[in-house]
Structures are given as structure tokens and as C-alpha cells.
Amino acid sequence: ESEGLAVVSDDSALEAAIDQALAENPDVLEKLREGKLQAAGAIIGSVMKAMAGKADAAKVRELLMAKVSE
């Protein structure tokens, strides 16, 4: 952690990054809603990039799937 390697798992920070990624990729959101779950990789990648690789990918996927099923 002292070297900046902490993993971000704060839901609100991750949700904000997911919302941003979905806003930038509405076509991916549509694919996810159609059940094409492999499209989630694009959003997870965008979130990881936005969080400088410090996001917990499993947590991002969990939050993303919850958001898509809303």
C-alpha cells in the first residue's frame, strides 16, 4: 500500500467509473442487456484504465452485472 499498490474496492468510486464507462460505450451496455456477457470485458477494461489498474476486477464485474440487470 505504501507504494501505491492499494486495490480500489470502494463501491462508490467503482460505480462512478462504471457509469462513466457505460456512458462512453452505450453499445456495450446494449450487448450486455442482450445477454452477451463477454462484452463486459470492454467495460471492465475501461474501469481498470480509469482507475490506473487499481480496481478490483471481480468487484467491478459484480457491480457492472448488478447495474445491467436494473
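(the above was protein one; protein two follows)
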Amino acid sequence: LNPSLVVIGGSLAEFGDPFLQSVRNEVRQRALWDAIHDVEIALSRLGDSAGTIGGAAVFLDTVDVGTVLA
């Protein structure tokens, strides 16, 4: 996998920028350059709601909303 964006969410995001910088440094040391040169690592702005919002997004993406609302 070569993701272009890695989002750290939930309770880990609450550790803020010092934690984010530690993650970025560790990734730079351990990953191959070709795999990470275009990768952005960011904190989620959704906090602990990320799982709930993500679950709702998957639900809405897989369900025919017209049928559910009928």
C-alpha cells in the first residue's frame, strides 16, 4: 500500500502535535523513501467522533437511502 494520506484519529489525536511529529519521525526512519515521499500524516479534526462518522459514511455509501427513508 502507498497511501497519500494517513489520518490519526480518536483518542490518539488528542496527544496533538508532539505525538504527530514523533509519528512522522518514526515513519521517516523506518519506511522506504518511495513509499512515503508523497504521504501526508495528519491528525483528525473529528476526535472521538471519527469512528461514528466513518461508520455513518460507510452505511450511507452502501445503502439505498431512498429505500430506508420510504
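Reviewer note on protein two: The chain has four helices and two strands.
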